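Folding problem:
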Amino acid sequence: MLSDAAHSGSHFSEELVRELTDKEFRQEYMMDQVRSYIAFQIRALREQRGWNQADLAREAEKTQSVISRLEDPDYGKLSLQTCLEIAIAYDLPLLVQFVEWDDWLSRMSNMSPSAMRKRGFDANRLLNKRAVRSQTAEAFTRMMLEDQQKAGAARAANQNAAQEKLLAVGAR
């Protein structure tokens, strides 16, 4: 794995970007980082909940030795099905998506336990966020309508002024 290089205004270093130009290095680096990220997150979420490996094993219907392997960044046999089962044990959704390199590097740049913590399902929190978003959307819509009305009134005033000028020129 690469040593931590100094970051200059971005989440990744120029040195890393140069090394990523080698396709073989890039592929190995990506796989290593993904394995590490998943392993660290499984452990951080378990610790966040105050669980030991046996507790997570029970919730995920696995053995403690399976959980131990999942928390090992060098373990390379993690399946999507297992990730789904772990997500269910934590009562969290799982997001698997292909992303662009800059987004991926930014996301991978922080593997601290605090960055890995996630809250489980909470209907009240989701409804409160939805209400806030709805209120924000309503306020934005009102603002846009007011701006359109002001613009319409300004256009009408300009048209009236233009018509008055034409009438004044025609009356001469």
The CA atoms of residues 7 and 14 lie 8 Å apart. Confidence is low (pLDDT under 50) at residues 1-9. Helices lie at 14-20, 23-48, 53-60, 64-70, 80-90, 101-108, 113-116, 123-171.
